[in-house]
Design a protein that fits this description.
2 domains, three-stranded antiparallel beta sheet, about 35% helix, seven-stranded mixed beta sheet, Hypothetical Oxidoreductase Yiak, Chain: A, domain 1, Ribosomal Protein S8, Chain: A, domain 1, single chain, 10 helices, alpha+beta
């Protein structure tokens, strides 16, 4: 239980967005870019990705002030073919780089049917689902991969931190049902969840982390004493490795020992790698027919027989849908420690603090 649960305040999403935009503009990000970053970060919070929204703002600002991030990047296509591209982010904010990459993939998929876009020289961009979901509005399937911005995972059976959480997200449109949106790290928990647990004074469930003696680690403030556990044991390790190669090594982005821990380093560019795939449904046949088949599959899954203790069968993305409905109505929950950090940031930047 969180001892400060009763002190959590709710802030309307619109106010969060204005606060983020003002903070970004204050450190030199052009107004239009600050607006894009603020919108995407706020969307992360509204969708329930607490470790990737405004929680990250003080860290982003520190890195910008430390010279680790380029506030006026010339984002460009470095290499391309009809169905692929490599984007050079010029060390810009990851949200800007990945929006450019997603738009590039969508544009190319409209003519080629499918498009893969790799990214180098980027930065942390928030939750994977933000970008996998962008092709949905164009009747496309989206798939996103990334190299995490700190290594918290060793090779299976090892101790050296050479891999990150390396997430994957896949977004698949439906017709009448909500889209299927898978968003997951290749570790049992993303490291952002560890950081939010620490900030809130909560403990971690057993199975998230292990210390270097192989014992469960549940105190998030002792996270440096251990490492995250991969999903599915050695299979998760394999996924983290392969996703990192596709999002990082293939694009000449950081991977393995080259990954910079942006949680501890405010001055070094990270050369973060991402990849996004867009698949145009129209290239495979009739779009509405595909969506109806997805509707049928979703309904069959929900209606399938359940084990005695299971109340419902859930579809990937439903948690975000519930969070979006609840937070759009009541506001985004801001825990006391985060509120204090944001108040400090507002004072340092000379901008108006958040109101509950």
């Amino acid at each position: 239980m969180n001892p400060d649960a009763d002190a959590v305040k709710r802030v309307p999403a619109a106010e969060l967005q204005v606060f983020i935009e003002r903070a970004c503009a204050k450190v030199g990000i052009p107004a239009a870019d600050a607006g894009v970053i603020a919108e995407l970060m706020t969307r992360a919070d509204v969708n329930g990705s607490d470790g990737h929204g405004i929680f990250r703002l003080p860290q982003y600002i520190r890195r910008i002030q430390g010279g680790a991030v380029n506030v006026r990047p010339a984002i460009r296509i470095a290499n391309e073919a009809p169905a692929m591209a490599v984007v050079d982010g010029d060390n810009g904010m990851g949200h800007l780089v990945m929006r450019f990459a997603a738009e590039t993939a969508i544009r190319k998929a409209k003519s080629a049917g499918v498009a893969w876009v790799g990214v180098r020289r980027s930065n942390h961009a928030g939750p994977a689902a933000l970008y996998a979901g962008m092709p949905l509005a164009h009747d496309m399937i989206g798939l996103y991969l990334a190299v995490g911005n700190a290594n918290h995972l060793p090779a299976w059976g090892g101790l050296d931190m050479l891999l990150s959480t390396n997430p994957i997200s896949v977004a698949i449109p439906a017709l009448e049902e909500h889209s299927i949106v898978l968003d997951m790290a290749t570790t049992v928990a993303a490291y952002g969840k560890v950081k939010t647990k620490a900030q809130r004074g909560e403990t971690m469930p057993e199975g998230w982390m292990m210390d270097r003696q192989g014992l469960p680690l549940t105190d998030p403030k002792r996270a440096d004493e251990g490492f995250l556990l991969p999903i599915g044991g050695y299979k998760g390790y394999g996924l983290a490795l392969v996703f990192g190669i596709l999002a990082g090594t293939l694009n000449a982005a950081a991977m393995g020992r080259d990954v910079v821990d942006f949680n501890k380093d405010d001055t070094t560019p990270t050369n973060t790698g991402h990849a996004i795939l867009a698949i145009d449904l129209a290239a495979f046949g009739e779009v509405e027919g595909f969506k109806r088949r997805i509707d049928t599959l979703i309904r069959d899954l929900r209606a399938s027989r359940r084990m005695p203790a299971v109340a419902a069968i859930h579809i990937p993305g439903e948690g975000s849908q519930r969070a979006r409905a609840e937070r759009s109505r009541l506001g985004v929950p801001i825990a006391p420690a985060l509120a204090a950090a944001l108040d400090t940031l507002a004072a340092e930047l000379g901008i108006q603090a958040l109101r509950s």
